[in-house]
Amino acid sequence: MIELKSSLSWSRDHERREGELLGYEDWMNDHFLDRFYAKPNV
User: In terms of Cα–Cα distance, which of 32, 1, 3 is closest to 18?
Assistant: First the structure.
């Protein structure tokens, strides 16, 4: 987890890995990532 947090850039993959390490199930990560990284309605 420390290596993950010390990364200079943060990506969707980092978010997913953090969720895995915190014990979230895949569907929970998918739901969060879809909402957090959603494209804005223009």
Answer: 1
> Token pair for residue 22?
């915190």
Q: Is 23 left (phi over 0), alpha (psi -120 to 50) or beta?
A: left
Indicate the DSSP class of residue 9: S
CB-based contacts of 18, cutoff 8 Å, min separation 6: 1, 4
Token pair recorded at residue 12: 């969707």
Q: Using 50, 70 and 90 to split pLDDT, how confident is the model at 10?
A: confident
Question: pTM for this structure?
Answer: 0.72
Please give the Cα distance from 38 to 1 (Å, whole number). Answer: 25
